[in-house]
């Protein structure tokens, strides 16, 4: 893949902690272009006079070619894409259930740990208290193991590079192994003296690994944060499809707040990579997120929940897609598209377009914009985008994506929102096509 | 003397009644209470609950001790 994988460099990047990374969908549309060259088109300097005409011609041809590919997808191909998405949704559902089971186990063990600990603190180590002391330590250890398994599950399903993933998982496995050994030692104790000896060793070990366990826990929290931030962004972009002027201003504030949360999370992640505690950043991110949610509540109040949820009339069987991409994307269908980022955008002239910030660089049957800002396109939209951007598509259509990033898709209203990593190319169908 | 005392008593009675009436008047003045309507809190489809739960779990893990 020739697209510079900026988002994939270093653990401090958002893309590494996306909540879900399952098997990529099989690309049905084969990439046919020189990626590196195409990516260069997004740079403003290519519009210089000398190369301008030639490149514009090529871009126009490229646009028509890609849109033609999307529009001519056969029914069987669309079905194949749908089936793949369904399989991935099922895999994700199973993973969510696994996490839920582990969480319940953890909560139960913490509850028992507290119960037995209280008993031992009250009665000391006499008679039956000895057995309670064993249970107190065993439940404490088991709860820690469950927590670490939860962290492992999260790391395994994230997009952390394989070598880093392996390193962290190995370290967690070593800690889990030692904690399990401690459980066996506690189980084998037969007197208060013996259990005191084991508890002493355990305290020393726990003091030595606790900072690392905390950091892994923070990684889990940050991963959840990114997930929530993406969900919040999807909601914002959905509102943008139908926003009034008053709400548009509020949305700008909302997106700024969301972006600030992301920045703090990136800082937190960078600290964790260095093995440092990032709790202060996590707390700061939480405060910022609460501010963003306050703005979102104001937006709901101003616009009305019903109007937001009903959204723009695009028919009944519509789907949704949100993506964060460094690369390119093409959209074709009866949709509304919200695009934010720094990129080059080609749109068919007959779609209804609102542009903020972008510069119009060409206009014939295709309108080309370049720069950074916001674009909302509605109607029968045919669009290609190249650069670093976030895109929200709602309605009935086909979306093709190439590059690095991640996406969330809800193919039909009754289906769950699926979150996947993007590495290479993918074709996704949103809504029920005729 | 009796007349004077009677006059004083009547006078006091009138003053007392006057005060009482005034009090009654004050008591009967209706107090207007404006109903305080709290605007219903808008529910948004996203919140920090999941993050807060994980932070609580992390606190629980941190506070685990093995002191016997």
Can you describe what's shown?
The complex is a heterodimer of chains A (434) and B (68). Chain A is an alpha+beta fold and 434 residues long. Chain A is built from 9 helices and 5 strands; from the N terminus they run αααααααααβββββ. Chain A is 56% helix and 23% strand. In chain A, strands 1, 2, 3, 4 and 5 form a 5-stranded antiparallel β-sheet that branches. The longest helix of chain A has 49 residues, at 75-123. Chain A is elongated. Chain A starts with 34 loop residues before the first helix and ends with a strand. Mean pLDDT of chain A is 84; it is low at 1-28, 30-39 and 41-47. Chain B has 68 residues and is an all-alpha fold. Chain B has helices at residues 2-28, 49-63. The chains are: A alpha+beta (434), B mainly alpha (68). At the A-B interface, helix 3, helix 4, helix 6 and helix 8 of A face helix 2 of B.
Element layout with pairings:
The complex is a heterodimer of chains A (about 425) and B (about 70).
Chain A: H1 35-40, H2 49-71, H3 75-123, H4 129-156, H5 162-187, H6 192-240, H7 245-273, H8 279-303, H9 305-310, E1 319-348, E2 352-356, E3 359-363, E4 366-410, E5 418-430
Antiparallel strand pairs in A: 1-4, 2-4, 3-4, 4-5
Chain B: H1 2-28, H2 49-63
The residue ranges of chain A in which pLDDT falls below 50 over 5 or more consecutive positions are 1-28, 30-39, 41-47
Query: What fraction of residues of chain B sit in β-strands?
Result: under 5%
| Ends distance of chain B | 95 Å
The overall strand count of chain A is 5
Whole-number average pLDDT of chain A? 84
Instruction: From the 3D structure, determine the CATH topology of the domain at 92-220 in chain A.
Output: Four Helix Bundle (Hemerythrin (Met), subunit A)
The fraction of residues in strands of chain A falls at 15-25%
Q: What sequence of helices (H) and strands (E) makes up the elements of chain B?
A: HH
- Provide the low-confidence segments of chain B as ranges: 19-40
Largest sheet of chain A: 5 strands, antiparallel
CATH class of the domain at 92-220 in chain A: Mainly Alpha
Summed over residues and divided by their number, the pLDDT of chain B gives a mean of 67
User: What is the alpha-carbon Rg of chain A in Å?
Assistant: 26 Å
Q: What is the chain-wise order of helices and strands of chain A?
A: HHHHHHHHHEEEEE
| Percent of residues in helices of chain B | 55-70%
- Radius of gyration of chain B, taken over Cα atoms and rounded to an integer in Å: 35 Å
Largest β-sheet summary of chain B: none
Q: In percent, how helical is the residue content of chain A?
A: 55-70%
Biggest interface pair, residues each? A-B, 42 and 23 residues
């Amino acid at each position: 893949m020739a697209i510079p994988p900026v988002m994939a460099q270093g653990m401090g990047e958002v893309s590494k902690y996306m909540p879900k990374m399952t098997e990529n969908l099989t690309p049905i549309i084969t990439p046919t272009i020189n990626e590196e060259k195409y990516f260069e088109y997004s740079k403003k300097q290519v519009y210089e006079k000398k190369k301008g005409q030639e490149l514009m011609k090529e871009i126009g041809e490229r646009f028509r070619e890609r849109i033609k590919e999307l529009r001519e997808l056969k029914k069987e191909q669309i079905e194949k894409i749908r089936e793949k998405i369904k399989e991935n949704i099922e895999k994700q559902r199973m993973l969510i259930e696994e996490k839920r089971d582990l969480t319940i186990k953890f909560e139960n063990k913490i509850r028992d740990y507290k119960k037995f600990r209280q008993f031992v603190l009250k009665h000391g180590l006499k008679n039956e208290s000895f057995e309670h002391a064993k249970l107190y330590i065993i439940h404490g250890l088991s709860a820690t193991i469950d927590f670490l398994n939860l962290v492992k599950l999260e790391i395994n399903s994230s997009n952390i590079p394989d070598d880093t993933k392996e390193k962290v998982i190995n370290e967690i496995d070593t800690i889990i192994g030692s904690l399990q050994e401690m459980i066996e030692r506690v189980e084998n104790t037969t007197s208060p003296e013996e259990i005191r000896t084991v508890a002493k060793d355990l305290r020393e070990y726990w003091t030595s690994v606790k900072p690392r366990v905390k950091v892994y826990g923070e990684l889990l929290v940050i991963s959840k944060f990114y997930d929530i931030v993406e969900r919040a962004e999807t909601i914002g972009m959905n509102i943008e499809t139908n926003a009034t002027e008053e709400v548009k201003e509020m949305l700008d504030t909302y997106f700024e707040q969301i972006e600030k949360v992301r920045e703090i999370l990136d800082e937190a992640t960078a600290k964790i990579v260095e093995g440092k505690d990032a709790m202060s950043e996590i707390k700061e991110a939480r405060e910022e997120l609460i501010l963003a949610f306050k703005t979102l509540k104001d937006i709901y109040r101003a616009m009305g929940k019903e109007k937001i949820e009903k959204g723009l009339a695009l028919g009944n069987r519509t789907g949704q897609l949100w993506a964060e991409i460094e690369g390119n994307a093409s959209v074709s269908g009866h949709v509304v598209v919200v695009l934010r980022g720094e990129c080059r955008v080609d749109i068919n002239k007959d779609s209804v377009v609102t542009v903020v910030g972008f510069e119009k660089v060409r206009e014939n049957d295709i309108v080309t914009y370049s720069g950074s800002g916001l674009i909302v396109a509605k109607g029968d939209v045919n669009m290609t985008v190249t650069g670093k951007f976030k895109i929200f598509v709602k309605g009935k259509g086909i979306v093709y994506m190439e590059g690095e990033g991640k996406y969330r898709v809800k193919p039909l209203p009754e289906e769950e929102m699926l979150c996947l990593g993007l590495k290479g190319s993918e074709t996704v169908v949103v809504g029920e096509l005729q | 003397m009796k007349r004077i005392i009677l006059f004083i008593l009547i006078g006091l009675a009138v003053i007392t009644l006057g005060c009482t009436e005034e009090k009654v008047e004050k008591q009967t003045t209706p107090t207007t209470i404006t109903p305080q309507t709290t605007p219903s809190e808008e529910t948004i489809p996203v919140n920090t609950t999941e993050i807060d739960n994980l932070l609580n779990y992390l606190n629980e893990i941190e506070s685990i001790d093995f002191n016997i």
